[in-house]
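TASK: fixed-backbone design
INPUT:
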């Protein structure tokens, strides 16, 4: 199902600009760079269908998820050389659940310092509240490198 007006669906269907484009597509999943105020190198793993909860994934999507998450984490680790890679799922919207997406986020000491030393969900909340978005050219360069790495990691 494709829901017009859903940010995730609109990005994946090309109805909304997606800096860096889709980095990986499998039968059930798509990976792209985060849109909005998350640090450079943050990838989003999202179901290609409009799914709002992990509990609602079909068997095929569930079987692919581990491979796609591992490949995404390997790409983030290789390109970002983070101190920690966060992996967390989100689907909250202002008025209910929205398109499920799993963030794979590189976190370095410099990123933590930039946002006052907080970590985990507090770090992500500060990033989102800041409105600071990575430069589009930096995203494009990162995505070009990530696309090449995905080819080697997952053979896509």
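OUTPUT:
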């Amino acid at each position: 199902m494709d829901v017009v007006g859903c940010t995730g669906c609109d990005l994946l269907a090309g109805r909304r600009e997606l800096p860096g484009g889709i980095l990986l597509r499998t039968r059930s999943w798509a990976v792209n760079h985060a849109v909005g105020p998350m640090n450079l190198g943050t990838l989003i793993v999202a179901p290609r269908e409009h799914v709002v909860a992990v509990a609602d994934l079909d068997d095929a999507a569930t079987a692919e998820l581990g491979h796609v998450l591992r490949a995404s984490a390997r790409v983030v680790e290789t390109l970002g050389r983070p101190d920690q890679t966060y992996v967390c799922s989100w689907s909250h919207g202002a008025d209910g659940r929205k398109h499920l997406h799993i963030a794979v986020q590189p976190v370095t000491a410099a990123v933590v310092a930039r946002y006052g030393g907080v970590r985990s969900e507090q770090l992500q909340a500060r990033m989102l509240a800041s409105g600071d978005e990575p430069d589009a050219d930096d995203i494009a360069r990162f995505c070009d490198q990530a696309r090449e790495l995905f080819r080697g990691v997952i053979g896509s």
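COMMENT: The chain has five helices and five strands.
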